[in-house]
Input
Amino acid sequence: MSTEKRRYYYRYVTEAKFTPAVEYHFFKLRAVPCVNEFQRLEEQSLLVLPSDCILNFSTDAFGNSIQYGSYNLWHDYFRVESKGIVECEKYAIPDPCPNDIYSSPSYLIQYDQELMDWAKQIAEYKQEGWSLPEILTHAVHHKIRYQKYETDNTTTAVEVFHKEKGVCQDYAHLLIAVCRCLGLHARYVNGFVLGEGETHAWVEIHDGKQWLGYDATYNKKIDWGYVKIAHGRDVSDCPSNRGQIFTFTKEKLTINCEMREI
Amino acid sequence: MNELLASRDSVNKWMERYGVRFGVYKNGVFNEQLFPFDAIPRKISASEWSMLEKGLIQRVKALNMFLYDIYHDKKIVADGVVPKEFTYESKGYMPECEGITPSKGVYAHIAGIDLVQAKDGRWLILEDNLRIPSGASYPMIARKVTRKACPQTFRDNLISDNRNYGAMLKEMMDYINDGRGINCILTPGRYNSAFFEHSYLAEKTGAILAFPGDLIVENNNVYYIGLYKQKVRVGAIYRRVSDEYLDPLAFEPSSLLGVPNLMEAYKAGKVGLINALGNGVADDKGIYYFVPRMVKYYLGEEPILENAPTYLPFFKEDFEYIIRNIHKLVIKDVAEAGGYGVMFGRDMTPERLAEVKQLIIKDPRRWIAQEVVDFIDLDIIDESGNPSPRKCDLRAFVVTGKETKVWKSGLTRFSRNPNSFVVNSSQGGGFKDTWVMEK
Output
C-alpha cells in the first residue's frame, strides 16, 4: 500500500443574480469534497449568501454530504463559496460488495441494441498492458467530440452515443453505459480537477475489490489530481447545485472552480 | 330494493350537485366527467368477507415487510426468493429511499387491492396499488346519498355501516403524526383526476387540504403557511402527489407540485408521509408475481388469497408458454397503470400478435402475461332501463397504522361496454355500492 500523500487547495464559487428579485428560494448543494479512504479534509469552509439564510447539513442515500436550505425574504443574489484543503492518497476506494444499483440501468443511462453491440465490440479489443476499463475509457474518449452547448442535464447516454458530441458529463455517462452493458459496476462522480474552470465529471469502475477512477474526457486512469465531491448512478443523483423558485424571474448563473497542488 | 333502484337518478343528481367527478386526460385535453353510479349493490356475505379480510390483511402485512426489507437488509433478494432484476431495475425502486425508516416503519398506509371473483366463486387478486390508490370517496358519498334517498333499504337489510372510513384514516394519520403537528392532505390541485376525493377526504378526516406552495420546509420541519402567512407545524402528510413530483430538489426538477426539501424532513424523521416514498417497487406488475412467495417468506403462512394465473417471460419456462399461447393470454406492460398498456391476445390481428411477440423477446422484463380470468358479471341497469350484465372488479381499501384493517366496503367498478373486461375509472366505467352483510 502506497502511503504517498498529496495536498490540494480548492475553491468553488457559484453565483446567481435574479431579475426581478425572488422570495421563497430553496436550494440543495453538493459543494464540499467528500471524506473517504483516499481523501481527507484538512480545512474547509462554506459560505452561503445571503448570510441569514437557513442552512442544514445531511447525507443523501448515496452517502454524499449535502448542504440545503432556503431563503424566504426578497433577494436578488445568491452566492456559494466553498474552499479548503484536501489531503489525498492515490485514487482507490475499497468496497467489498458494490451495490447492484450501479450495474443496473438508471434514469439517464439506459441502452439500446446498437449501444450494447458497440460495448461488446470494444470489449474485445486487446492492447498489451491495458485493463478492460482502460480500453473502454479509450474507446469512449475517441467516440465523442468535446463540444459545449450540444447537450444538457437531461441528455441520456444513448443520445450521446448517437450524437457523438458532448462535455465531461456525457463522456462519463457513455462510459458508465458500456460498463453496465458488460456487467461491470460503474458510477458517476463529480468533483474538481487541477486547474481552473467548472466542476468536472468522471467515472468510478469497480474491479472486484475497490472503486478505481477513470476519466474518459481526458482519456486516463485516475491516480492523482482529482478531488471527489459526490457520486450517484448518473448526474441526476448528484448535481452540485439545484434550486427552486416559485416566482417568475431570470437567473444569471456563474460557476468558477480552481484547484492546485500545494 | 325497488325503492333503491328507483332512486338511481336522484342519487346521480345528488352526486352531481356534490361535484363527484373524475377527471380524464384524453389526447392532452382535460375533461371532468361524472362517475356514473349504478343502484344495484354488490353484496358480500359476512363469511365471505371474513375470508377476504384475513387474506387482505395478510397480503398487505407481507407487502409492508417486503418494502422495509428492500430498503434495508434485502434478505429476500439474498435468499433468492425475488430476483434482483425485479427490484433494482424496477421503475418503482428509489435508491434515494435506501436506509430511510418511515414514521413507525409503515410504508403502505393505504393499500388499494384489486380483486375479481371468478365464475367458480374464488376471489383472485388482480393487482396491488400501494402508491396513491384512489376511489374510496365514491362509495362513501354514494352510500351517504342513498341512505338519504331511501332510508328504508338500510333499515331492512343488515348492511355493515361503512361511514367509518374517515375515522379509520384519521386514526392512522394521528398514529403516524405522533403529535408533531397538524395533519394535511396534499393535493396537486383541481386539475388532478381525483380532486373531488382529496377535498372530500380532508373534510372527513379533519385534515387541512394543502395545495403546492402551502407547505414549506425549514430546518427539517414542515410548516403549513396559512392565509395570514402564519406557520403551523405539520406532523403527517397524506400526499396525493406522486413520488417523482414530491420534492423538486430530490427528484423531477421541473415539478411545481412538490415541496422543496421535503425529502430531507422525511429522512430526518420530522414528518410522516402517507404513503411512504418508494412503494412502487412493491406494486409493479412484475413484482406481483412474487407476492404469494413473500407471504410465505415473511409470515410463514400459506397465502389465503391467490393471484390470477400469471407468467413472467423473464423465466424460460413461462416465456415458452407465453409464446405458444399468446393468442389466449392478456399481456400487460409492467410500467403502466389505470388500464393502459393492457392487450388481449384474442383481439389482436396475427400481425399485431407477431409484433407483441417481438416486444416480449426484446425486453422480457417489461411484460407479464395472464390467463384471461372469466370473472363474474353483475347486473347493472343499462341506458334503456333494463338489467344488463357487466364485468366487475372490487377495490378493497386496507389501512395500516398501529394495526392493519380493511374497510368494510370498497369500490366495485364495472365496464361501460358489455364486451369489455377493463373496468378502470380512467377508461370510462361506472361504480356500484359494495354491501358487506352482517350475516
